[in-house]
Structures are given as structure tokens and as C-alpha cells.
Amino acid sequence: MNARATVCGLCLLILSWAAPAAAQTIAGDDTPLRFGRVEYQGKVHYGFLAVGGVHLLTGSFFDATTEHSGKIAPIDEVKILAPVVPTKVIGVAFNYRGAPAPKHDGMAFFAKLPSAVIGPDAEIVPPPGSTELHYEGELVIVMGLTTRNVSEKDALKHVYGITAGNDITEHGYGRSPFVMLKAKGADTLSPLGPWIVPGLDYDNLELQTKVNGKVVQKASTSQMKRSCAKIIAELSRYMTLEPGDLIYTGTPGKTAPLKPGDVVEVRIEGVGTLKNTVAKQQ
């Protein structure tokens, strides 16, 4: 049994005697379970959002020995962190209809850095020399199993769930492949969260990005050129994907520059809203 099955089984057991349904803890959302990481009373915990608040676990979702700790943290007493600590962060380019086609055959993808990942409400800090920092709201796949050379048919069995992400990119560095890593992988350029949600129809969800309350991106993941399963299958031909690894699946439409003080929100249907503020350049 994999880690997600273990923890999900535990959660369902808890919810079988808890009432009302977990869905009622979040108005307007019928997703029963949301997994994440929180800071509570000075310590970092993995847990899931359900009746009463965040149910704290004894370890990571990906550890089959993880159990419910018996503790529940009130939601207004926790700091929500990025939901996982990945070993790899991969991004997919040109993946929505209407985007330019890559100049080579096959899927266009790139690496970001785990150290770039930040959680909800953390500040996006423009990197040195930043002149044109853009938002890119995206659906992010969170891997649940070690995956290598998986078929498209079986790919989603290896997924833990999905979350919201913002592939912040510094366009002012130019388009050379030699600047891509600092343009996309500098510290704080990979906001992620707030929760991981399994079991949704990943390829048919609304994605919306707002800047200062104004909608600047709105699309459905059904408009992606490559489905989540296709993305995983292709990536797994080239690299081993580990539990907790992240795949940013591409952004729809056009993007625009941000400025210090801007508030950026990325909402994925069924997941929630990822909110971050752009800080002053340091």
C-alpha cells in the first residue's frame, strides 16, 4: 500500500465518525480532504484539513508508517506552509492552446529549484537586477510514488494530488537558455499551495489568476495541449520522479509584469487560492 492510500484510509476512518462532513468546514467547496504542511506552536507538521481544523500527522504523507497524532490544530492558529518539500521542480512550457509552439519536437520543459518554493502569504522577492517580473498561474502536479518510464495509462496512479502554483519568471534577463535557471529558479519564484487535493478531474478544472483583485488569467485545464498523464509519462522517460516532486503544468494566455506591493492570487477549482505579495527588490 502506498503512502497516500495509508493516510487516506486513516482520514476516511476519522471522517466516518466525525460530523458534519469535512466539506462543510470550507464554504462553497465540496472537496472532503486537503493535505498540507503547517506551522503550529513553533513546530512544522504534515496534516489534513477536516472537521475542527488541521488534523496533525506523525510524519510525512509519503511515509507508510505515518499515523494521526490525535491532535487537531484550529485553522486560525496555524501558519500554512508550502504543502511539500520537493527534491525536483519541473515546469512545462507552451502547454495551453494558443501558446507558441516550441522550436523542437516533443514537450518543452525546464527545471526550477526546490529552494525557490514558498508557501501562501510568503513574499515574492524580485531577484537581483529584476526589471520585468511576470506572474504565471498554474496547476501543479504533486507526485506520490517513485516513477520511471510509466505509461500514460498508469501515470495518474503515481500522483498524490494537485495544488496551485505561480511560476514567477524574470523576463528582463532575456531568453538565453543560460539565464533560464536564475529567471525561474531564484529564491521565492515558485509559490505553492495552499493544499494538495487528490482525486479531482485534473484535466477539467478552472484556473484563475488575479493581480490586486483584477482577473488577469482565466482558463480551464481542459485547454492544456498535454494532459497531466501525458506530461508525467513523458517526463518519466528522462528522469525519476520522486514522492513530493512538483510539475508546474504551464500557464494560459498572456502574462504581464508585476511591481512591488502587488498581490497575486492563483485559484484552482477544488483546491483553493494561493496568495502572495511582491516585495521590494533587495
Brief rundown of the structure:
The chain has 282 residues and is mainly beta.
Keywords:
seven-stranded mixed beta sheet; Fumarylacetoacetate hydrolase, domain 2; five-stranded antiparallel beta sheet; 282 residues; mainly beta
CATH homology group of the largest domain? Fumarylacetoacetase-like, C-terminal domain
Give the helices and strands as they follow along the chain.
HEEEEEEEEEEEEEHEEEHEEE
For the record, the CATH class of the largest domain is Alpha Beta
Strand content: 35-45%
CATH architecture descriptor text of the largest domain: Alpha-Beta Complex
Shape: globular
User: Count of DSSP E strands?
Assistant: 19
Distance between the termini: 47 Å
Biggest beta sheet attributes: 7 strands, mixed
The tally of domains stands at: 2
Q: Bin the helical content.
A: 10-25%
Within the largest sheet, what's the order of strands? Answer: 7-6-17-11-12-14-8
What is the radius of gyration?
Answer: 18 Å
CATH topology description of the largest domain: Fumarylacetoacetate hydrolase, domain 2
**How many H/I helices?**
3
